[in-house]
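Hey, quick one: can you model this chain's 3D structure?
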Amino acid sequence: MISEFLISVILLLLLGVYLGEDFIFKVIYLLAGAYLAGAWWSKKSFAKIRFTRHYENRVFLNEVIPVTIEISNQSWLPLLWVKLQESIPADLSLDRNIQRVVGLGPHATTQVQYRLLAHRRGYYRIGPLSASSGDLLGFFKDQRRSDEGGYLTVYPQIVPLRQVKLPSFSPMGALRHTQPIYEDPSRIRNKRDYLVGDSLRRVDWKASAAVGRLQVKQFEPSIALETSIFLNLHASEYPQRHRLDTSELAIVVAASLANWISAQKEAVGLITNGVDPLSEITTNLDPAEATDKVFQAIPTARGSRQLMRILDVLARVQLGETLPAAERLRQEYAKLSWGTTLILVCGHMDDALFEELFQLRQVGLNVVLVLVGRIPNFGRVRRRASTFHFPLYSILTIKDLDMWRF
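Sure thing. Here's the predicted structure for all 406 residues.
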């Protein structure tokens, strides 16, 4: 456009010299003034534009996310037009083409709105926003500017669970238990008459004085769960044909169990050998580098903030050729306290992994196996789990989680 403008001015100048008409020179002056004023105006006003993006950056699956881009002109010069184009992931788009053209007066603000749909769990980049502007006559249209964008975390599906039976060696917890060996002295159920053999520590002296005979406290049985969920996402340990679907099911199982344990006000942690996509690596890793590319283990803790930490990891973790499950367990088990329940969620079991789990139980950990998808030689795996006395659950589809829902 600038070259065409210069050619036009030169032709007018030659024509004015040839004809000797003052009117032609006045037109040239007007065009040159418009050109210079437009260049200055467009540059000054566009430099004062600010973009702010507003949206919820953590959402659950299938939520609709309204996004608002606020464009403000912080200059006293009006911005005649600005063209905006937003980059969004295809998996999240509800509006196919996010393009708008707006104008802004001095110190004015306007908004552009669109929606996203959280189709799939993941960690997504929203933006960057590209903007272009120019002058009224169209001499300048090449000014472009992009913001850095933001990120959106879509949590995996969480199936609400109600009854999950997990073993524990730790009494004095929040979960009721059927075995009186796990009585919690902080939870008094009722009182009864003293019987020979009862400990004097159980005697309620005030109640005994009131009724005139010895009364003994009875406590509610309970256990305390300190649970670490091990999510195996070593790609080779999932059947290749159904690898993606089965690993996604494993993530749903891990998220649902973590949510249930946290809802019971018990401590929960997470260990995984999955890949962190923020590490900017390929899916095939040298074993010497694999440890640095997986997520750091999340130690067991209570509370909603702990659950959010776990869900943040489960939102973006990916399959990868990292450390096999047995090797990753070997790295982390020493950090778990005695009596911790370790839930292994995986799509594969072999002798090496069974031997490692047996060693974990020898040092005081409870092991629970949750196998997802179709496991080759499942009958043999079930017999070995029975030999080692490991509780075993098989989850073929998400509907199988109903066994813990009702």
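One thing worth noting: The two ends are 71 Å apart (CA to CA).
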